[in-house]
Amino acid sequence: MNNTFQIGDRVQLLDEPLEGKVIAIDDTSITFLSSDGFELEVASADLIRLPDNAAREHLSGTVNPSLKEGDSPKRKNPTQSRKKKGQDPPVVVDLHAEKLFPQKNFPDAYELLDRQIEEARRMLEFALRKRIQHLVFIHGVGTGVLKSELETLLRRYPEISFNQADYRTFGQGALEVFIPQSAFS
């Protein structure tokens, strides 16, 4: 597929299921309006052009007979299509100091970090025992020390996967953890 873009093209990010319509093009980047209404500026190498509706129907070999000419097919809400039937919401573990020490008697930085990692380890082990498949650790933005230590802890469990949590739901300081059924013994 040719990836020379024009204003009005439908595009999708390569690494995420985020799509939209091109609204501006310059020498180094392309700006598109996402289906959520956000303007995003990215390098053209990070985008692919999506086929228009007619090309998509031709490629898939299916046409909805109930659609009249000029109508576009109704799409499911992307957040609904990602959720499986009966999937529980994630267990959210907030590792901020004020959540772990509500009396505001914070220990020094080293003791605080140790307590935060111990809490994360405790909750991860709890999830493994109780067959909880989806956790979110909120670590906050800060200097990145807690995030780095949390990633080190999570790498010790080769059966689980983790990535940055959805920033629209949890902000930028959160890691999402997935535990497959095969990890439960």
TrEMBL record:
The lineage of its organism: Bacteria, Pseudomonadati, Bacteroidota, Flavobacteriia, Flavobacteriales. It comes from the Bacteria. Residues 58-89 are annotated as: Disordered. This is Smr domain-containing protein. Residues 75-85 have a biased composition (Basic residues). Residues 109-180 form the Smr domain. It holds the Pfam family Smr.
